[in-house]
Specification:
Blueprint lengths: L3 E6 L3 H12 L4 E7 L2 H8 L5 E4 L7 H11 L4 E6 L4 H10 L3 E4 L4 H12 L4 E2 L4 H8 L16 H11 L4 H8 L3 H14 L5 H11 L16
Parallel strand pairs: 1-2, 1-3, 3-4, 4-5, 5-6
Helix pairs in contact: 2-3, 3-4, 4-6, 7-10, 8-9
Length: 225
Protein backbone atom coordinates (compact mmCIF):
# COMPACT_ATOMS: atom_id res chain seq x y z
CA UNK A 1 0.00 0.00 0.00
CA UNK A 2 1.32 3.42 -0.95
CA UNK A 3 2.22 5.64 1.97
CA UNK A 4 0.31 8.86 2.54
CA UNK A 5 2.67 11.80 2.16
CA UNK A 6 2.11 14.48 4.77
CA UNK A 7 3.73 17.86 5.42
CA UNK A 8 3.45 19.89 8.61
CA UNK A 9 3.50 23.67 9.06
CA UNK A 10 3.46 25.15 12.57
CA UNK A 11 5.59 27.90 14.12
CA UNK A 12 5.73 26.17 17.51
CA UNK A 13 8.88 23.98 17.37
CA UNK A 14 7.83 21.61 20.17
CA UNK A 15 4.42 20.94 18.62
CA UNK A 16 5.92 20.64 15.15
CA UNK A 17 8.42 18.09 16.40
CA UNK A 18 5.71 16.20 18.25
CA UNK A 19 3.50 15.98 15.18
CA UNK A 20 6.41 14.85 13.04
CA UNK A 21 7.20 12.13 15.57
CA UNK A 22 3.58 10.96 15.75
CA UNK A 23 3.19 10.58 12.00
CA UNK A 24 6.64 9.10 11.46
CA UNK A 25 5.67 6.33 13.87
CA UNK A 26 2.59 5.40 11.81
CA UNK A 27 3.67 3.12 8.91
CA UNK A 28 1.08 4.35 6.43
CA UNK A 29 2.30 7.96 6.69
CA UNK A 30 5.46 9.51 5.34
CA UNK A 31 6.47 12.95 6.61
CA UNK A 32 7.85 14.72 3.53
CA UNK A 33 8.36 18.25 4.83
CA UNK A 34 7.95 20.71 7.67
CA UNK A 35 7.68 24.48 7.86
CA UNK A 36 7.14 27.31 10.32
CA UNK A 37 5.59 30.15 8.31
CA UNK A 38 3.26 30.99 5.42
CA UNK A 39 6.18 31.24 2.99
CA UNK A 40 7.19 27.67 3.88
CA UNK A 41 3.68 26.53 2.95
CA UNK A 42 4.21 27.83 -0.58
CA UNK A 43 7.42 25.83 -0.95
CA UNK A 44 5.95 22.67 0.57
CA UNK A 45 2.95 22.82 -1.78
CA UNK A 46 5.28 22.49 -4.75
CA UNK A 47 6.14 18.99 -3.49
CA UNK A 48 2.44 18.08 -3.91
CA UNK A 49 2.00 15.99 -0.76
CA UNK A 50 -1.28 14.19 -0.14
CA UNK A 51 -1.89 16.16 3.06
CA UNK A 52 -0.66 19.43 4.52
CA UNK A 53 -1.42 19.98 8.18
CA UNK A 54 -1.19 23.71 8.86
CA UNK A 55 -1.65 26.08 11.79
CA UNK A 56 -3.16 29.55 11.36
CA UNK A 57 -1.16 31.38 14.00
CA UNK A 58 2.19 31.70 12.26
CA UNK A 59 4.27 34.43 10.57
CA UNK A 60 2.70 35.60 7.30
CA UNK A 61 -0.84 35.46 5.96
CA UNK A 62 -1.97 31.90 6.57
CA UNK A 63 -5.23 32.27 4.65
CA UNK A 64 -3.54 33.62 1.51
CA UNK A 65 -0.97 30.83 1.80
CA UNK A 66 -3.74 28.22 1.97
CA UNK A 67 -5.32 29.72 -1.13
CA UNK A 68 -2.02 29.70 -3.02
CA UNK A 69 -1.32 26.15 -1.88
CA UNK A 70 -4.68 25.02 -3.23
CA UNK A 71 -3.88 26.68 -6.56
CA UNK A 72 -0.37 25.19 -6.73
CA UNK A 73 -1.52 21.65 -5.96
CA UNK A 74 -5.32 21.14 -6.19
CA UNK A 75 -5.12 17.42 -5.27
CA UNK A 76 -3.39 18.20 -1.96
CA UNK A 77 -5.80 18.18 0.98
CA UNK A 78 -5.21 20.98 3.46
CA UNK A 79 -6.20 20.35 7.08
CA UNK A 80 -6.07 23.29 9.45
CA UNK A 81 -4.94 22.22 12.92
CA UNK A 82 -5.27 25.21 15.20
CA UNK A 83 -6.15 26.51 18.65
CA UNK A 84 -8.38 29.15 17.05
CA UNK A 85 -12.03 28.32 17.70
CA UNK A 86 -13.17 31.49 15.97
CA UNK A 87 -15.97 30.86 13.50
CA UNK A 88 -14.65 33.59 11.20
CA UNK A 89 -11.25 31.87 11.02
CA UNK A 90 -12.87 28.55 10.13
CA UNK A 91 -14.99 30.20 7.42
CA UNK A 92 -11.97 31.98 5.91
CA UNK A 93 -9.90 28.79 5.93
CA UNK A 94 -12.62 26.77 4.19
CA UNK A 95 -13.20 29.53 1.65
CA UNK A 96 -9.45 29.58 0.96
CA UNK A 97 -9.42 25.89 0.09
CA UNK A 98 -8.98 23.92 3.30
CA UNK A 99 -11.13 20.79 3.54
CA UNK A 100 -10.47 20.09 7.21
CA UNK A 101 -10.58 22.25 10.34
CA UNK A 102 -9.48 20.55 13.54
CA UNK A 103 -9.08 22.21 16.92
CA UNK A 104 -5.92 21.61 18.90
CA UNK A 105 -6.79 19.62 21.97
CA UNK A 106 -8.24 16.87 19.78
CA UNK A 107 -6.83 13.39 20.29
CA UNK A 108 -4.40 11.72 17.88
CA UNK A 109 -7.22 9.45 16.74
CA UNK A 110 -9.49 12.41 16.01
CA UNK A 111 -6.77 14.11 13.97
CA UNK A 112 -6.13 10.96 11.95
CA UNK A 113 -9.88 10.56 11.44
CA UNK A 114 -9.98 14.08 10.02
CA UNK A 115 -7.14 13.24 7.62
CA UNK A 116 -8.81 10.02 6.50
CA UNK A 117 -12.07 11.93 5.99
CA UNK A 118 -10.57 14.57 3.70
CA UNK A 119 -8.58 11.96 1.79
CA UNK A 120 -11.91 10.28 1.05
CA UNK A 121 -13.07 13.51 -0.58
CA UNK A 122 -15.13 14.72 2.35
CA UNK A 123 -14.95 17.85 4.49
CA UNK A 124 -14.15 17.55 8.18
CA UNK A 125 -14.94 20.20 10.80
CA UNK A 126 -14.55 19.57 14.52
CA UNK A 127 -18.09 18.44 15.43
CA UNK A 128 -18.43 20.68 18.47
CA UNK A 129 -18.72 23.78 16.29
CA UNK A 130 -19.43 22.46 12.79
CA UNK A 131 -23.05 23.65 12.77
CA UNK A 132 -21.99 27.19 13.74
CA UNK A 133 -19.46 27.26 10.90
CA UNK A 134 -22.08 26.12 8.40
CA UNK A 135 -24.51 28.77 9.66
CA UNK A 136 -21.86 31.44 9.19
CA UNK A 137 -21.10 30.20 5.68
CA UNK A 138 -24.74 30.59 4.71
CA UNK A 139 -24.35 34.35 4.51
CA UNK A 140 -21.12 34.21 2.51
CA UNK A 141 -21.29 34.21 -1.33
CA UNK A 142 -18.65 31.53 -1.93
CA UNK A 143 -20.26 29.88 -4.96
CA UNK A 144 -22.72 30.25 -7.78
CA UNK A 145 -26.30 30.26 -6.39
CA UNK A 146 -28.28 27.12 -7.03
CA UNK A 147 -31.02 27.20 -9.64
CA UNK A 148 -34.23 27.88 -7.72
CA UNK A 149 -36.11 25.44 -9.96
CA UNK A 150 -34.01 22.57 -8.59
CA UNK A 151 -35.78 20.22 -6.21
CA UNK A 152 -34.21 17.54 -4.06
CA UNK A 153 -35.49 14.00 -4.00
CA UNK A 154 -36.44 12.43 -0.68
CA UNK A 155 -33.15 10.52 -0.57
CA UNK A 156 -31.11 13.61 -1.42
CA UNK A 157 -32.85 15.53 1.36
CA UNK A 158 -32.03 12.74 3.81
CA UNK A 159 -28.37 12.82 2.83
CA UNK A 160 -28.15 16.61 3.17
CA UNK A 161 -29.68 16.46 6.65
CA UNK A 162 -27.07 13.91 7.72
CA UNK A 163 -24.31 16.02 6.19
CA UNK A 164 -25.44 18.92 8.34
CA UNK A 165 -25.03 16.65 11.36
CA UNK A 166 -21.41 16.06 10.37
CA UNK A 167 -21.87 12.45 9.29
CA UNK A 168 -19.29 10.77 7.04
CA UNK A 169 -20.21 8.82 3.90
CA UNK A 170 -19.87 5.57 5.84
CA UNK A 171 -22.14 6.78 8.63
CA UNK A 172 -24.71 8.04 6.12
CA UNK A 173 -24.68 4.68 4.37
CA UNK A 174 -25.25 2.85 7.64
CA UNK A 175 -28.04 5.22 8.71
CA UNK A 176 -29.90 4.96 5.40
CA UNK A 177 -29.09 1.27 4.87
CA UNK A 178 -27.47 1.84 1.49
CA UNK A 179 -23.92 1.24 0.26
CA UNK A 180 -21.13 3.77 0.71
CA UNK A 181 -20.67 3.71 -3.08
CA UNK A 182 -24.30 4.79 -3.46
CA UNK A 183 -23.75 7.68 -1.03
CA UNK A 184 -20.75 8.85 -3.08
CA UNK A 185 -22.90 8.68 -6.21
CA UNK A 186 -25.54 10.87 -4.58
CA UNK A 187 -22.85 13.31 -3.43
CA UNK A 188 -21.64 13.69 -7.01
CA UNK A 189 -25.20 14.28 -8.22
CA UNK A 190 -25.86 16.82 -5.45
CA UNK A 191 -22.72 18.80 -6.24
CA UNK A 192 -23.63 18.91 -9.93
CA UNK A 193 -27.26 19.77 -9.27
CA UNK A 194 -26.48 22.49 -6.72
CA UNK A 195 -23.36 23.94 -8.39
CA UNK A 196 -21.43 23.10 -5.22
CA UNK A 197 -17.71 22.42 -4.90
CA UNK A 198 -17.76 20.43 -1.67
CA UNK A 199 -19.96 18.96 1.06
CA UNK A 200 -20.34 22.20 2.99
CA UNK A 201 -21.55 24.04 -0.10
CA UNK A 202 -24.04 21.24 -0.82
CA UNK A 203 -25.71 21.93 2.53
CA UNK A 204 -25.70 25.69 2.00
CA UNK A 205 -27.18 25.41 -1.49
CA UNK A 206 -29.87 22.99 -0.31
CA UNK A 207 -30.87 25.37 2.47
CA UNK A 208 -31.08 28.24 -0.04
CA UNK A 209 -33.58 26.33 -2.14
CA UNK A 210 -36.05 26.35 0.72
CA UNK A 211 -36.85 22.66 0.20
CA UNK A 212 -34.39 21.44 2.79
CA UNK A 213 -36.00 20.92 6.19
CA UNK A 214 -33.38 22.00 8.75
CA UNK A 215 -35.51 21.35 11.83
CA UNK A 216 -34.15 18.89 14.40
CA UNK A 217 -34.91 15.30 13.49
CA UNK A 218 -37.22 14.76 16.50
CA UNK A 219 -39.51 17.49 15.12
CA UNK A 220 -39.81 15.90 11.69
CA UNK A 221 -40.32 12.22 12.24
CA UNK A 222 -38.03 9.34 11.22
CA UNK A 223 -35.87 9.25 8.11
CA UNK A 224 -37.30 7.14 5.32
CA UNK A 225 -35.35 4.17 4.03
Amino acid sequence: MRQISIALVDDHPVLLGGLAHIFSEIPRFEVVGTGRCAADLDKISEQRPDIILVDLNMPGDAFSAIRRSHEISPPTRIVVFTASAGIDHAVKALEAGATGYVLKGSTDDELIQAIDTVLAGETFITPSFASKVISALRSTPVRKPADQSVRLTVREDQIVRLLLMGRTNKEIAERLKISEKTVKHYMTLLMQKLHARNRVEVVLAAQELGTFDARPQDQRGPLLN
